[in-house]
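Changelog-linked ticket: 2-acetamido-2-deoxy-beta-D-glucopyranose example.
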Amino acid sequence: MTMLRRRCLGIKIVVLSVITFTMLLFSYPFPDPKPLFKQASHLLDEPLPPDLCACPGHCVAELQGHPWFSERFNGSFFPLLTKENYKLSNDTFNWWQRLQTSHEANKFNQVMEELFTLFPGESLFQDEGPDRCRSCAVVGNSGNLKGSFYGRIIDSNDLVIRMNQAPTQGFEDDVGARTTHHLMYPESAINLGPNTSLVLIPYKTLDLQWLISAFTTGTVQQTYRRVMARIQANREKVLIYSPEFMKYAHDNWLDKHGRYPSTGFFSLMFALHICDEVSVFGYGADEQGNWHHYWENNHGGGLFRQTGVHGGDYEYNITVHLATINKIKMFSGS
Ligand SMILES: *[C@@H]1O[C@H](CO)[C@@H](O)[C@H](O)[C@H]1NC(C)=O
Ligand SMILES: *[C@@H]1O[C@H](CO)[C@@H](O)[C@H](O)[C@H]1NC(C)=O
Ligand SMILES: *[C@@H]1O[C@H](CO)[C@@H](O)[C@H](O)[C@H]1NC(C)=O
Ligand SMILES: *[C@@H]1O[C@H](CO)[C@@H](O)[C@H](O)[C@H]1NC(C)=O
């Protein structure tokens, strides 16, 4: 009897110890796999990639393991001019002055100073880090958006970037309704809602003078063609694309193909340098191979692709390649 009791007690103790041990084991805080990995990679002398953003999957700015991308992407270039930083290098200024015939050389600095008495010129977007996951939709103007029903996906992004004459009214199902940023130049300008940032792409000093005029006196009404004298847009939200960045896009990304990049390519580059996740809509031809705008019924083709000054095919190739290496997500439409 006592033997049996003792054995029972023994078994109880064993069972209890096993339970306690198991509980201890599972309640013990598991080491974060990262420090372990860090240790291991330290042993291999490979630095651990920093947490560039909070997006699941990966971050646009991640360079490690992306040699083609690393050769082109340079995070030290910023797409916008700011009050503190609008001086151009001589190289850039000379390149920029040659883009479009311009008769007001060297007024640039004077115009810039006036510009930033009117518009904020703040440093925006430079808050990248492990807590940020900024998703962006870049919406091109291709007819392949027609019948795509992308509207809801597009609107679900933090930023929605559109360009030139793009309307949303009447096309919401396919292109969405929100616009946070609208890239344009004087000859492609349209009025904008109060929540949208006008992002001016300046090709000449006169474009900057037009911007000032369009919000004040309305005196600049002609560039190489007639332009809007006044524009409806939120002055507090106006942004100006940087010529330094324009040259970087042309040199680093297009290998100087075409005279200068198209608005579509500038929009993509804008997103690539301020967002952590980029989705691209409305680029390329429709399923019949036509290049037309989604708001036009003209299926004649060749409408906005062969504009002469842009390396359209090369731009498209770069865009497709960015999608191939998962740096952007491309929605090819219908
Ligand atoms: C990025 O651009 C800056 C400014 O032009 C330059 O100094 C730097 O060397 C570039 N970095 C790379 C990796 O090319
Ligand atoms: C800047 O460019 C101008 C015009 O091409 C040239 O005359 C001048 O020597 C350049 N200055 C410097 C410092 O390179
Ligand atoms: C602008 O944003 C405000 C605040 O989010 C919103 O209430 C308003 O409807 C928006 N206006 C337009 C025209 O989208
Ligand atoms: C685009 O890429 C394809 C395949 O990678 C290549 O055959 C073609 O020559 C490229 N076109 C341009 C304009 O670079």
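Closing comment: Example verified and attached. The mean pLDDT is 85. Residues 2-27 form the longest helix (26 residues).
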